[in-house]
């Protein structure tokens, strides 16, 4: 039980895998079921949600600090890659995409964004594809925004710009038969 718990300070941005980027707004001590617990109180502005996480459980639930610059560069580099579309049933792919988004791993989220992006000259997405794409893009944009200290729409536009440029390059490779 001597494992050193992750430590976050009030005001720190953190990533909670299932909810994305939040901010530690306070540290609380509460008595729950006769036990004294120390809790991180996280605020997720976009969802207007407050979450209390026991400090000793922060690591096991996957809570982490914002990604490193290296990880961010890797994620943005992933966006420039060629989309990989598996030929499996949509329901199975959707589950895989959701799992990647909820993993909290920035590069995995970038893969989902890349794979589901549709350029203006490509066929329309289904409603569920669009929902997953928007969820992944939003999650990626929130972490990018927190790291680069810009607002989410600015971060989202940066992501879409990278995707549009990559799509233009990849679509040139396709020569009509």
TrEMBL record:
SMART domains: CarD_TRCF
Pfam families recorded: CarD_C, CarD_TRCF_RID
InterPro entries attached to this UniProt entry: CarD-like/TRCF_RID, CarD-like/TRCF_RID_sf, CarD-like_C, CarD-like_regulator, CarD_C
Transmembrane segments: none
Domain CarD-like/TRCF RNAP-interacting: 7-117
SUPFAM superfamilies the UniProt entry points to: CarD-like
Domain of life: Bacteria
Gene Ontology biological process terms, A to Z: rRNA transcription
PANTHER family, A to Z: RNA POLYMERASE-BINDING TRANSCRIPTION FACTOR CARD, TRANSCRIPTION FACTOR YDEB-RELATED
Name this polypeptide is given: CarD family transcriptional regulator
Organism expressing this protein natively: Sphingomonas populi
